[in-house]
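Page 42, continued from yesterday. The earlier attempt failed because a stray header line got pasted into the input along with the sequence. Redoing it now with the clean sequence only.
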Amino acid sequence: MSGKKLVVIDDDPEIRDAMSRILAGYDYEVFTAEDGSKGLELVARENPSIVLTDIKMPGMDGIEVLKRVKEQNPDAEVIVVTGHGEMDLAIQALQLEASDFINKPISKQGLTVALRRAEERTWLRNKLREHTEVLEQMVVKAQTNWERTMNLSIILSKHPWTESLPMTARGKSPFSMKVRSVFTGTQLKRYSENMLLSSTPKVWPNKSKK
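This time it went through. Structure tokens are written below.
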């Protein structure tokens, strides 16, 4: 864990201090708030990768904090801290896309597991975004190549040398399936290289000479 920002929201000052000490040992830059409103201000200002919030607080509770954090920054991972008998709230938090929940009293092992899970979710989301961007670039490139291929097939189909092709290779429309079937793949590449770049009179008749 490498210097990422984390916000702790809890109305108990002792818990805030204890969490700050533990999390600093995990190489997090920790910010603390005593209620949901101030916690959301920190989230908006610091843009943390993880928010750790108590679920039962005066005023704005942890469920509302979770909802608003996700509205501000959907990529932020939220871990909720629950007390005994609050399993229904923990399940509700998970349904609202909290990454995990921890029961009080907070153990170092439980905190470590929850933080690791949040980090893994962040890593997977970033990887998915990278792969999606690469895939989109590949689709754009393939589409561009296809358009170039079709444009070239239209150009080639209009040149006089296509008169020597069998009738099945020619169509009344340059978009006919028969014409497309001739000017595809390696055939198109061979035609484009040999016909467009060649200066042989047999390929490009010089009509100026009679």
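Notes: The chain has two domains: 5-106, 135-196.
Reminder to self: strip header lines before submitting.
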